[in-house]
Amino acid sequence: MSVRRLTDNQPDSFEFTPQNLAWLEKQIAKYPDGRQASAVVPALWQAQKQNNYWLPQKAIEKVAELLDMPKIRVLEVATFYTMFNLEPVGKYYIQLCGTTPCMLCGSDDLIKVLQRRVGPQRKVTADGLFSWLEVECLGACCNAPMVQINDDFYEDLTVENFEKLLDDLAAGRTVKTGSQTGRVSSEPAGKLTSLTSLYGDGAK
Amino acid sequence: MTKILVDGIEVDAPGEFTLLQACEAAGAEIPRFCYHERLSIAGNCRMCLVEVKGGPPKPQASCAMSVKDLRPGPNGAPPEIFTKSPMVKKAREGVMEFLLVNHPLDCPICDQGGECDLQDQALMFGGDSSRYHENKRAVEDKFIGPLVKTEMTRCIHCTRCVRFTAEVAGTGDMGAIGRGEDMEITTYLQSAMTSELQGNVADLCPVGALLPKPQNFRARPWEYQKTETIDVMDALGSNIRIDSRGREVIRILPRVNDLVNEEWISDKTRQIVDGLKTQRLDRPYLRENGRLRPASWQEALAAVANKVRATEPGRMGALVGDLSAVEEIFALKLLMEQLGVKNIDCRQDGSKLDPANGRASYLFNATVAGIEHADALLIVGSNPRKEAPVLNARIRKRWLAGNFKIALVGERDDLTYDYDYLGAGAESLLNFIQNARPLGKLLVIVGQGALARQDGGAILSLAAQAAQKLGGVGPEWNGFSVLQTAAARVGALDLGFVPGAGGLDAAAMSKGGALDVLFNLGADEASIEPGAFVVYVGTHGDRGAHRADVILPGAAYTEKSGIYANTEGRVQLASRVVFPPGEAREDWAIFRALSGALGQPLPFDSLAALRKKLFEAYPHFARIDQIAAGEPGQIGALAAHPAVALRDPLSNVIKDFYLTNPIARASAVMADCSALAQGRLTQAAE
Q1: How far apart are the first and last CA of chain B?
Q2: Contact B174/A at CB under 8 A
Q3: Predicted confidence (pLDDT) per residue in B145-164, tens digit
Q4: Cα distance from B173 to chain A (closest Cα, Å)?
Q5: Quick one: pLDDT band at residue B167, thresholds 50, 70, 90?
Q6: Which positions in chain B touch A69 (Cβ < 8 Å)?
Q7: Can you give the pTM of this predicted structure?
Q8: How far is A143 from chain B (nearest CA, A)?
């Protein structure tokens, strides 16, 4: 993580869509009177979703206004959580896990793929499709190495299937989320190595 | 009360005490950075670690654990705290080492040096040398306003400033963005703080991250001459310490007085400093052919004496301004009595307060500390945030404690707490009196916005009715409270500096052709129409001096020893910090000299003799730091006055908080603050 600042190019205004506003009102209603500030994370998250997955300054101010909070309180939250992007991201925003288990399983090779195909971190490609960021552990170590693209995990990556994944995304083809090697969730790769007696011979 | 042992010393501490407080009660010194007794507990600096027997087996942050969390030993032995054990020593050294990892070694060029908590505690509790060889963190400096300079690399993230603006000031200006090593203290995107108390964050900062900007690189703390005195920027009479060097006032700091200002002061009180040096009147002036020319004291006094001798008493008058001490008002009053002048007034703003209604009718009877005991608050024609920011912080403190209804009649503004808006005019007050039920210990704050107008007397009487009827006045509680805006006002009213029988008031005296000679003791807010020969006694080349025919240069509040009575009626003694500039003299001495030139010398030759006379006539001024309480019965009498109020909405008297008196108007720092605040106002209006 590094110092997070709002980006220089900011849109002039931000308004919640009527649907999102209605949704936000429901979130606020979950909390007691006068505790509307508790809805700050959902509000920012919805604003980010509405605004192509990044939070402009005006959205932060809008949330502060809606929740009757000092602007700095909302900025604190927005800069605290790395889930909030403070600068524009690509249509496919790739968060690559580089923490120890993924690194041991070859995430460095995936980084090279991304550097070659997408460019440096935090830069959106010219066609607006991709941007990427190396992040800390996303909690899918048993399927390492992995990336998160927008809301989904893509696991068991190799250079080849990762390149194919990116090609498919760029071409607009549907892609499979989760393991890219056909593994079901986090079942053992290959055969069982422990508790074999419990499952009998059939498990081998 | 729980019995605990601190380093073997037995103390009885209430359960809600933190371990830190209990240790202090036992005389043990606990280092701390984030803990501040007037702010909420953060527990994030970890400097106050102690060892606890009867608690978890690890060093405990003593600021964040209370005595009731401790358990007695197996045989009922009292819980024990150790503050000098090897574990504590090692823990403190470890915490200090981590704090210093990212703290720059720039003490030689840091203004905080010499009064730095980190410096002192590193010496007392830190290790002897550094083991850190990596790169240190650096942080961009932020703009957070014209009063506070930042050097954010020095910040240790105690968050005292964040908690102060959120809790005491109530503006929520500051916050911490980012997290972990990248956490930074800042305002919202380089905007200036909006509080009138923002200067206090520099005092709270335990290191040199937030420093007073106007005092940048001026002197080391040990070079100052420190004088304890009283502030006159508002009628609260905040207790201050003025640091001077040579003949120059350098800075103003708050002094702790829980009965008045706790330990905060407003920005005007703090940063008026440069106004004390500019635009000063340092020699007498005489107006000749329409222009003021420098003159000697003899010349100036003779000119006044000649004019006075040629004028009959009915055509003379005297005005007293907002910053004068009791002594000079007393001297002026005696002089006027000798001359037989009845046209005297201390209410240049046209306030309808009258000592004839009794002392309780113009005092903040509830007292400032009493705000915390009130059950409800009614504000009439006042904006306490602008008129007395520190008192407003006290109201906010009471409001935060909960169960405190606030209602307001007058002009709406952001007061840093919620209130029910009753309406703008007197009719909404009347409505409230008729419909509201008794509210327990009601506090009624009446501001000058309700009093400095034609029907001020009627509104004062209505407010007294509100207090009388809704539980504001009782044997134990007198909640009828007038919030004065002028430091000199209560003292002058105590002295009875108001028109005698048939005398003219301030507004009538200022009319063209009403008088031939007008003595103006620092009344710079009054606009005096052409006609009268004006003798101005004051400190700054402000409105009063521009309209003067003779200027007799006086001493500012830092340059004389004087008695002030604050809005509660608390008598406080201000001390001389430096001498008046040039040929300027203390104001009482000017009137004594003038009386000599007139051939009827006043009966004192020294300040001590003057005070002796003063105390004979008004004994309550001798009781420094005490309040001679007003009679609650006088509120009843006041409420019984027939009152017909006008329909005009009440408007607040202070339009620009930063420019309310001649010293403030001479200050460049205050001008900066004012421009910023006005900019915000126009922005808000758009």
Answers
A1: 57
A2: yes
A3: 999 999 999 999 999 999 99
A4: 7
A5: very high
A6: 172
A7: 0.93
A8: 29
